[in-house]
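pinned: reference chain
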Amino acid sequence: MVKRSRLRTKQVGRRRLVIIVLITLVCIGAAWYVSRWQPEFWHRITGYLAVEQDRDTRSRESVRGTIYDRNYQVLAVSYERVSVYATVREIPDLAAVIKPLSTVLGIPAEDIAERLGAGSPRIWLARDISQEQEELITDLALRGVYLHREFVRHYPERESAAHLVGFVERDTGLAGIEQFYNRLERKYRLDKRGVETLPLVADGHPGVDGRHLLLTLDLKIQRILDNHLASYVNLPSGSKRGIVVMEAATGALIGYAQTPSFDPNRFHTYREELFADIFDEMMAVPEPFKVFLREISLLASQPEGAGGLLPWSVVTERRKLGVQLQLWEKLGVGNREGYDFTSSSQTVSERVSFDPPQVLLPDYETVPVMQTPLQLLTSITRSVNGGVGVTPHAADRLVLRRNQSEYLLESFGDPGKRDVIDTSLTPELRRLFQAMGQAGPVDSRLLSGTSTSYRMNGGMNSFQQHHLSLALVPAERPELVVLAVGSDPGYLTEKKDAADLDRNVLSLIAPVIALQRVMKNLADMMSPGDQAGINYRSVVGADSATAPVRDQASEETELNRLEVVMPELDGMSLRKSLRILQAAGITVRVQGTGRVVDQRPEAGSPLSSGAQVLLMLEQDRVDADFKNDPASGVR
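pinned: its structure tokens
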């Protein structure tokens, strides 16, 4: 037996390695070529190789979920867009494909011939074709003509709440709640838990399977805010206006409007500075709010003793600087909170507060003179809501929908830790706010003021005038906090502009609180995860038992004068519909059984006391919103 030399063995090993490397490179090159120039064939191959037990469900859940308001109105949805393209060199006879493509796509044959003869290797013939066109193209089976499928994000409300909702590019949220949704997708994309381990929060709810995010936002209230800002549509360059409505007890944002706004469907056409959120931009704190914050610190600095808490009007000027600095942190003034609706605002402001020359300036000590409107909203709310550490937030819950059943993945409704300040301060701080503010509807109080800030710009001072209005609704036991902000370039702003903003806030209080109270009492409209807040509680905290009882006669009279409108009941059960209408003082007639398919009068029509309403029902009717949802696949 001839012994093989060591040199020969090494040469054989090298040849084998070279062959393996060459085969690998050829396979990679072939795979790249097929995926690049034969995408339909590539999809078939990958489809055959994919091993998934529940392919349809898994593919649906890999699509970015829908974002709803608290009433399941769509704010953002992903839908499949099908386009047609042609690889020219694969078409054996161009003339044979032009006529059928022209007939199916509704494009003149001359245009198709011109595109195919342009010399490009790949030609896009039509985008976003219909289901019928897709089926016809598939049946034609034209060589070299392919279908391209992709999911695109659509925002049906366009400019409404755009800064809060944000936008998506290439399935990645770049701003607003869409950016927060990225984190949720990363967290739950690989979640292997079965639905049997998750709490069931809703059943029989039509819609697309997948992970969906419900917000605290209410589009009905949002439209009220949008309408009030419509008068500012022609603002000069650099001017902004915004209104936000927040629940005092939870920090849930139910309205978030500002102008100028943008359309997230075409966000790439706007200047980047338009994406800056007015509520998260530094501004000089108006003097009335600095006074209020200073009084909070004075009350919090009182020594403990048997004598009890002194009223704000007679408290001594003794201060504890350490207590004050800790207080700002607890109230959210000393730092920016982690909001779930991130913005593009700068974390460090180049602006500083500007005070006009005066003989004697008030001493505000440690009160921060530059804050964002959201910081002011947070600090004042925490001081008057019983010491609950709320943080403004827009996300309510993330649900997994399977076969019309919804399972809770995560809830974001925790209002925060309690007793961030001494709850014994709350009644006195409410009285202070009432004394400082002007009276409004529904026993509300409005505190407002103007300020000026500036920054150096090319050796010159660039001034910005700010106006801020904040209302507690009602003032004694706040349910809602309404904040309006105006910002204009220049050293001085017309007093009329500030007065107009105050009037806008006062005029929207009554309709907003009326809608809020209706929605908070619709137990059957909400999932169990949301039912904890259905019986509306005006205040949360230990002081609720000792708070003075308010005479509600004037408030009820004021609310009764509001116009009641017919709600949208389409797709709801009879039980839910009757719950919604029970406080309207009307007579309801019912025809049929099942879900509501029609109503008289139509949604939005005024309802007077004693009016008659007709509800027409049918069995097993799919929600109309689901039928019109592009992501559902129903076209």
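why pinned: The two ends are 77 Å apart (CA to CA). Residues 47-58, 312-316, 523-552, 621-635 have pLDDT under 50 and may be disordered.
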